[in-house]
């Protein structure tokens, strides 16, 4: 039995590109948007929606005070599983494309006039219906490769990116932007190494950005630069881990000047002591010749732990029977626990009995586990894989 924490970290490094990125916490999303799943930045505000089973409403959010300023109902829309938003100069596109089990035959994209959206809190949409050209099996076998959560406008086409639960890759399909009934054409595929949940095409940069998370909820962004319909994924696809901790990143949208918003939805696992609020983050890419802030550099070289958030880091100890961790905090550990994915506690140690930062994993069956540390005023938890 051993853990694979180090191989996961190495995978990130192998894919990580040369781009410099700053990550900023914009604020907590309103709880009315705790299941937010798609975003666009339009008229200086964030437009968002919730996913499956929620009302067919688009929410307009002020990103300064994080308050909802408008709610626009799609009168002829049903939120079977809304998963993403995109836009062009004249229309907003709402992707009702969630398809976890791969059995849906009513996949659709709602096309909403921006003129209608601007002047009324109730709109009717044109409907783009489609099916995949290469899907033959509609049997419910649980997780499938036919789920999808990412959509973006690219020139005169809509690009849809599947979320392959089985293969952790994505297949890209193109669909016309006009209302009608279509067969979505397969145009590309990519071994993402994670679950794709959002897409945004930055027309000014001619870059395609995808947001995703790994099987252990480690979020990352994929960037494919200078794209074309026949070259959506070139040789220089960059994979950039997002330093926002344990999170279910659900959407990405272009703001401008290489700045992008990323949304996460609420994630709760009471048995693990995990409660993550829905958040909005901004990422800003630096150009290679951008100056580095000297004060920021000095702070990185001389970190003061009293002014940092408590963090839990996991490492491979190079011993197949051990997982090594490090707690970046001046607080004492009251207790340490390990949970499996069903919520069952498989190991527990009181803080007074913790002798070192090595966790014995010899008795663990293959699977995903959560190392949880209780610090009194907070609980830190991080996933690892044993096999």
TrEMBL record:
InterPro entries: Secre_tail
Keyword terms: Signal
Protein name per its UniProtKB record: Putative secreted protein (Por secretion system target)
Origin species: Maribacter polysiphoniae
